[in-house]
Design goal:
Strand content: 5-15%
Strand order of the largest sheet: 3-1-2-4-5
Number of strands: 5
Number of domains: 1
Helix content: 25-40%
Low-confidence stretches: none
Mean pLDDT: 90
Shape: globular
Number of helices: 9
Length: 200
């Protein structure tokens, strides 16, 4: 399961939802012998909570790893993930909502949000980026993840497996001007730092 860490304090992986977490977790487990989830009870945890949960100071790790993803793609992936969950018989509120609405209807309904969308809220300990932070864009994962993990890996680096992918068309096909504006309002920091909001 995503969100994991090395017992020897080499790597801590903070899993932001719908940003390749299963693939990164699988890769780390095949590279680093002492990767564990001890003390972590869900897939997703903020870096600032790690010490209370595991006894490991997140600032003591050599690499605090977080993968970021284009917010437009994240929202499409979230919608289809919950739609798929409904079709698999999981009828919790998010799944029922996604199943009952088109993407643009769902996005307008989600306008107010139900949690912190911005990436920095997940990986920051205080008000600034931790000095051991290693950020990789999901779009560059194949090239950058092996480089980040190589100093701590045991043996030959494996191939990255693409796991838990949502089944949908290219995310660019889902947006018009109004829906783009909704996503931009949810992720102002992420667009400022990582992505161009005019990309669609």
């Amino acid at each position: 399961m995503p969100c994991c860490y090395s017992e020897s304090n080499s790597v801590l992986f903070i899993h932001y939802p719908k940003a390749g977490g299963f693939s990164v977790d699988d890769y780390l487990r095949r590279c680093i012998p002492d990767i564990t989830r001890r003390g972590l009870h869900t897939r997703h945890h903020y870096a600032r909570h790690i010490e209370n949960l595991t006894g490991h100071d997140p600032l003591a790790f050599d690499c605090l790893l977080c993968v970021v993803r284009n917010p437009y793609a994240v929202q499409v992936s979230r919608y289809h993930y919950w739609h798929q969950e409904y079709e698999q018989g999981k009828r919790y509120p998010h799944a029922r909502l996604a199943h009952s609405l088109t993407f643009n209807q769902w996005l307008r309904h989600e306008r107010s949000g139900h949690g912190p969308y911005e990436y920095h809220k997940w990986y920051r300990i205080g008000d600034s980026d931790p000095p051991n932070l290693c950020i990789i864009k999901l779009e560059n994962l194949a090239d950058e993840l092996p480089k980040a993990v190589a100093p701590y890996a045991s043996g030959k680096l494996p191939t990255i497996k693409h796991l838990n992918e949502s089944n949908h068309d290219d995310w660019r096909k889902y947006y018009d001007a109004a829906s783009k504006a909704i996503v931009q309002a949810k992720y102002p920091y992420t667009f400022t730092r990582f992505y161009d909001p005019s990309e669609v």
